[in-house]
Amino acid sequence: MWQSSVEHLFSSFFSRSHVLKLAPHLYLQRMNDQLTQRELQSLAYIAPPKQLGAFSGLDDSDDEEEGGNYVLHVRTALLEVKKGAITAIGEMAAHSGAAFVPFLEQVMQVLQKAASNWHPLIKCEVSVALPSLIMPSVEANHGGEINWTKGDLAGANPMHPHTQALVGAVLTELIMLMKDDDKSTVGKACEGIQTVIETCGPHALLPVANDCLQNTHELLTKAAPCLAAEEMYGELPEDDDDHDVVMQAACDLVGGFGRVMGTQFAQYLPQFLPAICNYAKSSRPPSDRSMAVGCLSELAQELEGSIFDHWQGVFLPASVAGLNDADENVKRNAAFCAGVCCEHLGDRIAGDYAQILQAISPMFSIDVNAASTGGFESAAACVDNAAAAVARMIMASPNSVPMAQVLPALLSALPLKTDMTENETVYKCVLGLLQMNHPEIVSRKADVKRIFTAAVAEDSKVEDEVKAQLQAALPGLQ
């Protein structure tokens, strides 16, 4: 218990040191020696089940199966100590800055050894800790941030050689952990890869792109080792609402590929889109449908016009189906997807505007005030995203939008209530119409004044830059 408390104390100290303005580097040597030399290197003493022998009595969670065969669920105090040590090392790396650089090589060797441990508890914690090892090098060699450009592989590699070598070692381990048979480990490995590539950019992904993409596709198609049981015994019923964290992590990683690779990822859409759309089926639980439409939204946002070849076959039907879904989270994601697609594809898809607007229209009738306390936020976010989608459509192809019918609905939804990330979009649209002196917006100056006045109020959550633009426009609304 004492040892476990020590590791917990180390983790707490380093996770709070930046808030308390402590100097963690003064304690690094002693803590690192404690954690790596005495704790983690003794991982060899945690034997796999077949080697436990007389020590099996230490475990109080043995389960006897039929036929006298034992399955050992080893969660002893020793395992907890090792897990705590790995957690503490991750916190040390994440919060000690450049002062942790001298310890990176030693710690990397220890975590590489731990990554091959037989117990999922250890491997999962390694998946969480590994991405943190990047941060000291980023702090020391890049001033805390690597400036990279989406999809740019032709330019110079922005990573310092030390950072590049470290990134290569970390990603190699995480990619191996993606192939593990433990779901929690695989999910954390996906999250770790996403963190690393979004921190370091396309040059970090390039050397391991093939393996990374293949492993992710195998997860989405349930061909990965951690999903072998489902393949062997059959998948859970599709109406089971127990959302799979592995699939969520894999879809998030696909979005990460889009953010890092940009249009370079378009060549892989024929392989990935069918796998993603499988989770958007009406027979899937709402969490799966929301996840799939959300993933499509991220791809549309990052790949921009490169999705055009898949608009009619994938993005349009998925958006319309999502807008007509009974679940508000699915509706919300579908509205965002439709709006982003219109924003980037512009007049090329103007012929589909009527179908999209017809599907979005009922969302403006959602009574957010009638929603339960727990449902208010999802209902309000649904309306907010409908407003943002319409704003994007107007800005992308104003002549394709029947303004007399659409503008009153848009203005009635403003100011936004929960999704403040869309403030810039909706107010950019309204300000643009005012600058154009569009007759429909001119005839509704009283509504616009009401909206702008609320948006610039002291307690408003609108960003200061947008507030300044609205404040400047208010005198013209008299």
How would you describe the overall organization of this protein?
α15 runs parallel beside α17 and α20 runs parallel beside α23. The longest helix has 21 residues. It is globular and about 70 Å long. It has a two-stranded antiparallel sheet with strand order 1-2. By secondary structure, it is mainly α. 61% of the residues lie in helices and 1% in strands. It is built from 23 helices and two strands. β1 and β2 form a beta hairpin.
For this entry, give a set of tags.
478 residues, mainly alpha, two-stranded antiparallel sheet, 2 strands, 1% strand, globular, disordered N terminus
Side by side, the strands of the main sheet go 1-2
Return the string of H and E elements.
Answer: HHEEHHHHHHHHHHHHHHHHHHHHH
Helix content range of the residues, please?
55-70%
Rg, rounded, reads: 26 Å
Strand content: under 5%
Number of E-state strands: 2
Helix-strand category: mainly alpha
Unreliable runs? 1-14, 19-24, 51-74, 237-242
Choose one word for the global shape: globular
> How is the main sheet built?
2 strands, antiparallel
Distance between the termini: 70 Å
